[in-house]
Amino acid sequence: MIKILLLSDTHSYIDDDILKYVKEADEVWHAGDIGDIVVTDAIKKIKPLKAVFGNIDNASIRSEFPEHNRFMCEDVDVWITHIGGYPKAYDVRVREAIKKNPPKLFICGHSHILKVIPDKQLNLLHMNPGAAGKHGFHKVRTMLRFTIDGAKIDNLEVIEFSKRY
């Protein structure tokens, strides 16, 4: 069983509250809009990190992280990208590929809106952890954590921080 911490849209923000949850995870996944490489460097000092770049990320972040990260976690096919859309409204960048070869777990960020939606048509679970940073229109900073045990995605928890201001 692997304990995952999923975050996105940090927009250069990292603090002890986020790092407390990083320490409790086995792996951390970041769904883009990192903002500053110091964010991912701080996470990598503590735990293994899988990440993608987002639309605000600069050349140094884009050289370290891909636009799409598809991998196996135990028996779960995972695809992380920053701009992915939602079931029945996937972004044009992923729409055809996700229909042809859907993962079991599809993760994106970008919207700053936390959503977990089963896509029954493609037989996958869609996750967007919202935004862990302080930049954007969201009022509450959020992350997700969950476990993967074999082919099972379980123990999903929403982590909410106080208002971002």
Protein architecture, described:
- It contains 4 helices and 12 strands.
- The longest helix is centred in the first third of the chain and has 9 residues, at 16-24.
- With 165 residues, the chain is an alpha/beta fold.
- The radius of gyration is 15 Å and the shape is globular.
- It has a 5-stranded mixed beta sheet, with helices on one face. A 5-stranded mixed beta sheet has the order 4-5-8-10-9, with no helix packed on it.
- It has helices at residues 16-24, 37-44, 59-64, 95-100, and strands at residues 2-7, 27-30, 49-51, 68-73, 76-81, 85-86, 89-90, 105-107, 114-119, 124-129, 140-149, 152-163.
Question: What are the main properties of this structure?
Answer:
165 residues; 5-stranded mixed sheet
The gyration radius over C-alpha positions equals 15 Å
Number of strands: 12
Shape: globular
Structural class: alpha/beta
Poorly predicted tracts of residues: none
| Widest β-sheet, arrangement of strands | 3-2-1-11-12
How widely separated are the two ends?
36 Å
Q: Give the ordered list of helices and strands.
A: EHEHEHEEEEHEEEEE
* Main sheet record: 5 strands, mixed
Helix content: 10-25%
